[in-house]
Structures are given as C-alpha cells and as structure tokens.
Design goal:
This protein is mainly β. It has a single domain, classed as Nucleic acid-binding proteins (OB fold (Dihydrolipoamide Acetyltransferase, E2P), Beta Barrel). The protein is 0% helix and 42% strand. It is built from no helices and eight strands. The protein is globular, with a radius of gyration of 14 Å. The protein starts with a strand and ends in a 26-residue tail after the last strand.
Length: 127
C-alpha cells in the first residue's frame, strides 16, 4: 500500500483528545521502531478548516511526545498516512515525526515533508 504525506496546514484545528500512551502488542509488550525506540500513540481530533466535521485519528510517534494535555491544540511534524489490509481487515495508520503543543493561537499545524514510512494504529482499524 502507499505511504502518503499529509499537508497538515490544510487540516484545520488539531487538538489532543487522548494523552500519549505507549503503543503495545496484544501481549502487552512495548512496540518499537526499526531503530529500537519505543512507539507512542496519541489520539487527536481534527476539525476540518471549513464545516463542522471532526475526526479522531490515532497518531504514532517514536519516543514520547511531551508537554501535551488533553484538549490542547497541537502541531504535527511530517504526518504520513498508510493504508493497509491484512487477513480481510483494512484501515489507515498515521505516523508523525513529532507532536508538540501549539504556541499561541492559529491553526495547529506544520508543513509536511517526506519522512520514514508510517507504522501505527488508527481509528481506521486494528493493526
């Protein structure tokens, strides 16, 4: 499946709705990236720039995002989406280089640039 960079500047307002948690296997072990860094998963609400629609996505990062509080606006660095299909299940995973608190007001975003392919879990299905 394709890894797709997402231009977060076009998403609208982004807020933390579930504080970062370690991403674990079904057996409870911490998942790690290719370099051995622990993976963290954070629930974010994304309100489209125009309209009333809001989506919740779960974004994976290598290393723990710090300074995030539930309800606070955040910024994403290098957000990627990856569509997947395994054993009749499918979904989309989201991965970012960093999730940081937004400073000041305005849209909680940063420009997206190519990065390592995403790996993670999203609201789109189980992984």
């Amino acid at each position: 499946m394709d890894n797709k960079p997402i231009d977060v500047a076009r998403l609208g307002q982004i807020r933390c709705v579930i504080a970062p948690e370690p991403r674990t296997t079904p057996e409870g072990e911490t998942r790690r990236d290719r370099e051995g860094n622990p993976l963290w998963i954070t629930g974010l609400s994304v309100r489209q720039a125009e309209g009333r629609r809001t989506d919740v996505v779960h974004v994976v990062t290598s290393g723990q995002p710090t300074g995030l509080t539930e309800g606070a606006e955040v910024r994403l660095t290098n957000l990627w989406a990856n569509e997947w299909a395994v054993d009749g299940r499918s979904g989309t995973t989201y991965r970012a280089d960093a999730i940081t608190p937004a400073s000041g007001s305005g849209v909680g975003s940063a420009s997206a640039a190519p990065a390592a392919g995403p790996r993670g879990k999203s609201a789109g299905g189980d992984s």
